[in-house]
Amino acid sequence: MNQISPAQTDITPEPGPHHPDLRLVNANPDFWYPVAWSADLKRDKTLAVSYAGTPIVLVRPDEGSVFALYDRCPHRQVPLSKGTVNGQTVRCCYHGWAFGRSGRCIDVPYLGKGKLPNGVRTFPVREAGGLIFVFPGDPEKADSTPFPKLAQTDNPKYKTKHFSPRVNCHYTFMHENLMDMNHQFLHRRQMGQIKARFLGQDKGEDFIEARYSFMRCAGQQPLAERLIFGKHKDLQGKEQPVEEVVTIRTEYPYQTLRITDKDGDLIMDLWAAYVPLDKDERVTQSFGLLSILRPQTPFLIDVIWPALGWFTNRIFLEDKEIVELEQAAWNEAGYDRNVEIFPVVKALRELLIRCGIPQDMPPATAEKQPAPPTPAEPATSA
Ligand code: FES
Ligand SMILES: [Fe+2]
């Protein structure tokens, strides 16, 4: 009997063409990243968030805009997010040092006439579309860095759903998962059997876009899909052509998925950002805004909203399981063994490498970033 030797089964080439390994490429911090939902930060409160292992405290004073500081008190490294907000300051919960929105230390209750210690690093903040964004990279680049268009959050013709699942994988798996519509096979139980047809792509220095249409080969059109898109023609056992075009675009570092109907009208507009939480960037906090064109029947959207939520969540859970398994396989192998054959994903991987920061190559901006100042102990003590 012919036995297959391990060497014959292991057809994956050793990495080489994969350098740098995509899963060791950090997200580029010189962009605006969402870190929290606006609704989760109340007036006069703080909220602890993080970007790639950097702890950040968001502060919403009673008056004025949100500000963001490095979330460690320079005194004993206690999170400032445990402190209290008074006016435009946050006061550490331990010895009561107070910091203003510029990060400066403005009060040490027991200091007397001594020189005030150094403050903490600040981060530029913007709030839009129900999200709080920070600029974790070089603050001097914040103003000139384009702010993303957040689906249709400012368009009353659409209703927008928020979602923010945390996924235990490198952010690049999320980009690949959504861009590669050839994975509809995974969702066959939720969507029925549909086949993606690749229509074409566009790419540039900082983006790649792929367009698809879909063909239902068998099974019923799910109800939520039918209510949004209308009933597709039932050709009695024949393949049902679907006339919507799905456009998926990674415009670094964000990703969008837009569905237009046969007249070119935008029916669905998804915007997503994948934010690394930990230093190794193997835990990703995603933030998504899904805008759906309101059907002409008033309130129909509100009636179908829970079903739509359930449907999208079921699909998402399948994706989450898969991308986490991909990360687990990377951890097990210790490097990227993927064999990619789809040109769009190959181009996407190049884009993510080109725009990201390889881990063994510290970013020029990281050196320029002010390190959180080292604490200077007060001259006097209580
Ligand atoms: S640790 Fe913050 S004031 Fe002492
Ligand atoms: Fe999927």
TrEMBL record:
The keyword Iron-sulfur applies. One of its GO terms (molecular function) is 2 iron, 2 sulfur cluster binding. Residues 362-382 are annotated as: Disordered. Pfam families: Rieske, VanA_C. SUPFAM superfamilies: Bet v1-like, ISP domain. Coiled coil: none annotated. InterPro entries: Cholesterol_7-desaturase, Rieske_2Fe-2S, Rieske_2Fe-2S_sf, VanA_C_cat. Its EC number is 1.14.14.-. Residues 32-134 form the Rieske domain. It comes from the Bacteria. Keywords: 2Fe-2S, Iron, Iron-sulfur, Metal-binding, Monooxygenase, Oxidoreductase. PANTHER family: 3-KETOSTEROID-9-ALPHA-MONOOXYGENASE, OXYGENASE COMPONENT, IRON-SULFUR DOMAIN CONTAINING PROTEIN. This is Toluene-4-sulfonate monooxygenase system iron-sulfur subunit TsaM1.
